[in-house]
Design brief:
The structure holds two protein chains of two kinds.
Chain A lengths: L15 H12 L5 H8 L3 H14 L2 E8 L7 E9 L4 H9 L4 E8 L4 E7 L3 H11 L5 E15 L3 E2 L2
Antiparallel strand pairs in A: 2-4, 2-5, 3-4
Helix pairs in contact in A: 2-3
Chain B lengths: L9 H12 L5 H8 L3 H13 L3 E8 L7 E9 L4 H9 L4 E8 L4 E7 L2 H12 L5 E15 L3 E2 L7
Antiparallel strand pairs in B: 2-4, 2-5, 3-4
Helix pairs in contact in B: 2-3
Classes of the chains: A alpha+beta, B alpha+beta.
Chain lengths: ~160, ~160
C-alpha cells in the first residue's frame, strides 16, 4: 500500500548518460565538467547542458552540505508539538519561519508537528522554546528531546 | 555532540557561503570574487572537507525517489544498551538518521519510505527484535513544510 500517491517524476526522464553523470558526481561533487566528460567520452558542453537540464527538471542537484559545527551550532533538539485551537498547517508555517528550525513536518502520530532545531548552546534552548515557540498561537504542548549524539545523518533525498 | 575543533576564519565562511549557493561554482570563480589565488581556494576546500565541515553530495528530488514519506521512530530502550543499539540502527540502510536522545525517547531514528508494509517489516523484524528495545513509537510525516538540505551532521571516518 502506498503511503501517499504524490507527484512522481518518471525515472525514464533520465537516460544512461544522466545517470552516469550523477554517479560520478556522487563520488566527487566538485569534479569539473571536463573531468566528467572525459570519463564518459562526451564533450564538456554536453555535460554542462545535461546538468542544466537536471537542475531545471528539479530532479537532482549537487549540494554543498555543511556541518552544524561550521555554523557554530552545537546543540540539536527534536521537538514534538501539539496544536490546539488553530490549523496545524498554519502553526507549522509559523514554526518554519524561525531560522533555527531546519526541518518541520506535519505528522500522523502522537504529535501534530515534529521539528528539528539547531542552536548555538544549551542556554539558547530556553529562549527558543519558551520565548519564540511558546509565543506562537496554537502551540499547546512541547515535547523536546536533546541530541546527545548524532550517529548517522545521511539524507540524499529531499525536496528540491 | 562531537565536532571539529578547527576554527573557521572569514575566508572559510565566505567560501562556504558561495558553495552553499552553488556547489558547482569553480575554484577560479570563487578565487576571483574573493580576490585570493585559486590554490588558496583549493586548499581551503580540501581542509574543510578533511575536517568534515563540508561535503558535496548529489541530492535527488523527492518526486524522482517516488515521493517517499519521512517516518520517525521514537525508540525506548534499556539505557545500558543505547550505544550499541545506535550502531546497529545506523547499519540499517533504510534508516537515514540515528540520534541518541535525552528526554522523550532513548533513540530517534528516521527514514524515507514509499510503502507502509516496508515500514512495518522493518520495525517488527529488524528493530523490535534487537536486544534492549522496549518500545517503538512510529510517526509518519504527512506533509514536509521545511527541510534545509544544506546543513547536516557529517559523519564517517576522517581521511
Amino acid at each position: 500500500m502506498q503511503i501517499r500517491s504524490g507527484k512522481t517524476l518518471s525515472p525514464t526522464a533520465l537516460d544512461a548518460l544522466d545517470n552516469g553523470i550523477i554517479e560520478l558526481l556522487r563520488v566527487n561533487g566538485r569534479a569539473t565538467n571536463q573531468e566528467i566528460a572525459e570519463k564518459l567520452s562526451v564533450t564538456a558542453a554536453t555535460v554542462s547542458s545535461r546538468l542544466r537540464r537536471l537542475d531545471e527538471l528539479g530532479a537532482s542537484r549537487v549540494v554543498a552540505v555543511t556541518d552544524f559545527a561550521a555554523h557554530g551550532y552545537n546543540v540539536l533538539i527534536a521537538v514534538g508539538v501539539k496544536v490546539a485551537g488553530r490549523e496545524v498547517q498554519d502553526v507549522a508555517r509559523d514554526l518554519a519561519r524561525l531560522p533555527e528550525v531546519f526541518s518541520v513536518n506535519i505528522m500522523n502520530g502522537p504529535k501534530d508537528i515534529e521539528m528539528l532545531v539547531a542552536l548555538h548552546d544549551y542556554a539558547d534552548i530556553n529562549v527558543f522554546l519558551l520565548d519564540h515557540v511558546a509565543g506562537i498561537a496554537g502551540v499547546d504542548a512541547l515535547d523536546p528531546g536533546i541530541a546527545a549524539d548524532i550517529v548517522k545523518f545521511e539524507f540524499n533525498v529531499a525536496p528540491l | 555532540m562531537s565536532s571539529s575543533t578547527y576554527r573557521l576564519d572569514d575566508l572559510d565562511r565566505s567560501i562556504i557561503e558561495k558553495l552553499g549557493r552553488d556547489a558547482r561554482v569553480s575554484n577560479r570563480q570563487i578565487a576571483s570574487e574573493l580576490k585570493v589565488t585559486e590554490g588558496t581556494i583549493r586548499s581551503r576546500i580540501k581542509r574543510l572537507q578533511a575536517e568534515q565541515l563540508i561535503q558535496f553530495t548529489v541530492v535527488t528530488d523527492f518526486r524522482v525517489a517516488g515521493s517517499p514519506n519521512l517516518v520517525m521512530l521514537g525508540i525506548q530502550a534499556d539505557p545500558s544498551r543505547v550505544g550499541g543499539l545506535a550502531k546497529q540502527l545506523a547499519e540499517i540502510p533504510e534508516i537515514n538518521c540515528v540520534v541518541v536522545l535525552l528526554g522523550r525517547y532513548s533513540l530517534l531514528a528516521m527514514g524515507l519510505f514509499t510503502n507502509i508494509e516496508q515500514v512495518n517489516a522493518l520495525i517488527f523484524q529488524r528493530i523490535r527484535s534487537l536486544e534492549g528495545v522496549r518500545d517503538v513509537i512510529t510517526s509518519v510525516s504527512v506533509h514536509n513544510v521545511k527541510y534545509e538540505v544544506g546543513i547536516a551532521r557529517i559523519t564517517g571516518d576522517k581521511d
